[in-house]
Amino acid sequence: MSFLLQQKLFLPLLWFSRSDSWGYSPTDCGTGVHHIFNLLEAQLIANEGKDAFNAIITAAMTAQAGATLAVGVKTKSKKLKALAFPAALSAGLGITEPAIFGVNLRYGKPYLCLVLQLVLLVVG
After folding, report:
1. 69-119 tens-digit pLDDT
2. Distance between CA atoms of 109 and 47, rounded to whole angstroms?
3. How far apart are CA 14 and CA 67, in angstroms?
4. Distance, CA of 100 to CA of 105 (rounded, Å)
5. How far apart are CA 26 and CA 75, in angstroms?
6. How far apart are CA 24 and CA 42, in angstroms?
7. Residue 36 — pLDDT band, cuts 50, 70, 90?
8. Distance in angstroms (rounded) separating the CA atoms of residues 44 and 15
9. Is 86 exposed, middle or buried (0-12, 13-18, 19+ CB in 10 A)?
10. How many CB atoms are closer than 10 A to CB 61?
11. What's phi and psi for 20, nearest 5 deg?
12. Comparing C-alpha atoms, which of 45, 116, 67, 33 is closest to residue 53?
């Protein structure tokens, strides 16, 4: 199959199939599936000269940091504050596992809100 046909046929299908699951980007990180994005990004940069996944991944990291920071600000528990603020800082710098497993998944509601936020950001 020619490269031009691959670009015109499969790249839009990739974008369409991925658009409804961008909200699950935090879940990708939580399960370790996010490591495949390195290969996809390298392929996109080599073929297209640009990388659109980086914006989505950055939005997911920022959403994790924001949700964790909101939990830290709203809680009255000193223990949770001591966990949430450093986890929000590390999520803002790109390491989201403490925010995912330490705060957001533990309480559920922050995690669901950030997934909804990401879906609305990408689709809207």
Report:
1. 999 999 999 999 999 999 999 999 988 889 888 898 888 888 888 777 777
2. 39
3. 29
4. 6
5. 22
6. 21
7. confident
8. 12
9. middle
10. 21
11. -80, -15
12. 45
For the CA atoms of 59, 63, 65, 67, the dihedral, rounded to the nearest 10 degrees, stands at 180
Find where tokens 């330490």 sit.
102
Give residues with Cβ within 8 angstroms of 120, minimum separation 6. none
pTM over 0.85: no
**What is the model's pLDDT at position 84?**
94
Residue 106, both tokens:
């533990």
Residue pair 112/23 in contact by the 8 Å Cβ criterion: no
DSSP calls for 34-95? GGHHHHHHHHHHHHHS--SHHHHHHHHHHHHHHHHHHHHHH---HHHHHHHHHHHHHHHTT-
